[in-house]
Amino acid sequence: MLANRLKKARKRKKITQQEVADALNFSRQSLSKWENGTGTPNIETLKKLSAFYELSIADLTKEEQTENKVTISKNADESWLLAIIMIISIPIAPFGLLTLPMVFSRNTKNNVFYKWINVFVMLVLSFNLYVFYSHLKRFFITETASSLLETVC
């Protein structure tokens, strides 16, 4: 990104924004905008900056594609992990309820399986609640039936 490259080039020379602005005859505020990414220099200013920093215009403006690929692969790996955790959690009732908050918080829209993971979260939640309901129902029915038998006998 141009903003990051301009800032790195200036810091590598160990000079301030004001010194660069004075040397190239533009305002410090303009340089600040360019380094923060809120503005973009015109081609003539870009030529001056590249000459001053001793970098080519291509070096200043090239995109950092490798970082994007790493981010995509990291999200893909995390999506797979979250999906596997949810699939494993479906039949294991207590494990499912314990993993739900972690999976739900880690699932972002950048993940490849974002929608599928949300579907799995709902399935795990529904199944786990059903299992706990059936256990509680069986416990209370057993308690109630035994107390009725004791009062009758």
Any key phrases for this structure?
single chain; 153 residues; mainly alpha; 434 Repressor (Amino-terminal Domain); 2 domains; 8 helices; 80% helix; rod-shaped; DNA binding; DNA-binding
Structure description:
With 153 residues, the chain is mostly helical. The protein folds into 2 domains: 2-61, Orthogonal Bundle (434 Repressor (Amino-terminal Domain)), CATH 1.10.260.40; 66-152. The chain contains 8 helices and no strands. Helix 6 runs antiparallel to helix 7 (93-106) and helix 7 (93-106) runs antiparallel to helix 8 (114-152).
Low-pLDDT ranges: none
The number of helical elements comes to 8
Kindly name the structural category: mainly alpha
Report, as a whole number of angstroms, the end-to-end distance: 83 Å
Largest sheet: none
If you compute it from the alpha carbons, what radius of gyration comes out, rounded to the nearest whole angstrom?
30 Å
Task: Please indicate the percent range of residues in DSSP E strands (runs of 2 or more).
Answer: under 5%
Q: What's the count of strands? A: 0
Give the helix proportion (percent range). over 70%
Shape descriptor: rod-shaped
* Overall mean confidence score, pLDDT: 80
| Oligomeric composition of the shown chains | single chain
Number of domain modules:
2
Order of helices and strands: HHHHHHHH
